[in-house]
Amino acid sequence: MSKDKILALLEEHKGTILSGNDLSEKLGISRNAIWKSINALRKDGHEITSVKNKGYVLEMGSDHLSESEIRLHLEEYASSYHMLILDEIPSTNTYVKEHKDLPDHTVVLAKTQTSGRGRMGKTFHSKDQGGLYLSLLLTKDLTRYNTDLATLAAALAAAETLDTKCGVHTRIKWVNDLYLSGLKVCGILTEGSLEFESGTLNSLIIGVGINVNTESFPEELKDIATSLHEVTGKKFLRSALIADLLINLEKHLLMTRENPEELLRRYKEKMLYLGEDITIHRGNEITSGKLLDLSPQGHLIIESQGKTLTLNSGEISIRKRVYKK
């Protein structure tokens, strides 16, 4: 489609004026077709300015998701990924699980999700188009990864991406939530499927939801969630964040086999409540203890009632212990 080709050129020269003649000659289409495509792109949400007698410019702050811009930021890694950008779906992880024919390294992005999911059946607010909602599907060479550490690797990859690209200091609440200024800014959900006969893993899905440019939350979430925009007052280009996140996800997943000790060391540096008293929630059961460390498998090591316990993720959540006065 000429619209997609025009967008790719504008993104390649983002912030620079391209004349109608230049676009017409490069794409072999009429000036009128250029004008119609520009208007269609504006309706899609792209911030394109017409400069009288000069041409068109895609504004640097334009943040409408597009595959071509994500691939520009991926640079030499661009050919590694298949991409789908969808307007509205229940959740990206659910979409991947329902479409069995998707190839390895497929990235599914949603502009909005109606049923964003987290661990333990919790929901993730994702009805705002300023968010970043994606799932990465991996199906080949899964033995390269220690999937027991996949959630920790994904959380650390997301945290280091946001810190580097957005100038913030995120913390990780074991095992899969990122916090900023004491409020949740990102959630991770990893899911795998087993081959029935052999019992071996045949797919790994890593879902990531980040509140990027979200400006408001429902009343029930205002004291729980935040966004990068709320904390910094800045707007961020999601295409650049997506590219860096994908690259970091691959690097951190490889670390689960190649250098798990370093992965765990960096994870613990960002981990909330380490060395502090916490409450441990398992279904309706609530116990308290001190969070001592992580095991080599990424499990919690807790001191509780004079005993040292090792707890895996499963249906466990932790919170900082609050003492009543």
Account of the protein in words:
- There is one protein chain.
- The chain has 325 residues and is α+β, with helices and mostly antiparallel strands.
- It folds into 3 domains: 2-58, Arc Repressor Mutant, subunit A, CATH 1.10.10.10; 67-269, Bira Bifunctional Protein, Domain 2 (BirA Bifunctional Protein, domain 2), CATH 3.30.930.10; 277-320, SH3 type barrels (Roll).
- It contains 9 helices and 14 strands.
- Helix 1 (2-12) packs across helix 3 (31-44), helix 2 crosses helix 3 (31-44) and helix 6 crosses helix 8.
- Acts both as a biotin--[acetyl-CoA-carboxylase] ligase and a repressor.
Descriptive terms for the model:
nucleotide-binding, single chain, 31% helix, 325 residues, SH3 type barrels, WH_DNA-bd_sf, Arc Repressor Mutant, subunit A, BirA Bifunctional Protein, domain 2, seven-stranded mixed sheet, DNA-binding, alpha+beta, 3 domains, elongated
